[in-house]
Amino acid sequence: MKQIDVGLEWFLNPDHLPFIVALEKGWFREKGLDVRLIEPEGHYDSLSAVIEGSLAFACNEPLHMVDAPRPGLKALGCFFVTDGGVMLTPAGESALAAGESIRIASPVAGEVTDDLARLILQRWCEEREIVFDPALVQIEAAGFEHLENLQAGFDGAWLCFANFEGVEARYLDVEATLITTAEVGLPNFSALELFTGKAFLEQHGELVNDFMHLLSEAGRLCIEYPDEAIGMWYRHTGESRSELMDAIVRDTCLRLVSPVMRDGDRWWEMWRQFDRMGLSQVDQAGYEALYSP
Description:
The chain is an alpha/beta fold and 293 residues long. It is built from 13 helices and 10 strands.
């Protein structure tokens, strides 16, 4: 049995259903793989670890393919896509319209993503002929409890997603608008791509192909049989069943991607637009290297 450590981008959540299903079905073990899912301390830790070779695989948003050069990182394919952006309360909307400052909660305040949050809000304001001053948008580190943060007085939350906070807001009857990247003409990057390191891909090509195939099969199961996937989520996590989590997992199942395959075209427009706007730190050769053999 070969131990395979997979680094997540954050804590275990329904976006990682393909890994959970393959574990619960015993498919990894049938291939001789003892797969462990590792929750990182920092958002980028898993990417660094696969480059260094201490992790076999990692998953993270495609945004991190362009926000910093990461030589040695190899992209293997997307397995989950949702809609994401800034969730804004009515009070936040009114404050922006009045030229007043607003507070936005974010799990990664102070990072490059702050600029994207402000850009989303700027374009949203421009569509409504509201004068936008980026200095009035205060982005504060406040964890992942987006709905709790909104209820506690934040005017908005950044890095919210349709399959989680979108469902949660409707279920809890929290009045807030999810302003997605698509709505303001920005490329979608609310997704998860599977990564490995250059050396691991070269040395274990067959294993990588087997792993991608099993993720593809697991994603397909979730799409076709969401009730079965919901059951495996609770069995794997030990979480108490709730109507809200049922709804989140069911919505997530429909956003999974199968098959998982290397596709440099999928995020090309994202790189191109961000490069044109000066938001990409990776040149064309660097982007293309992610998908090279």
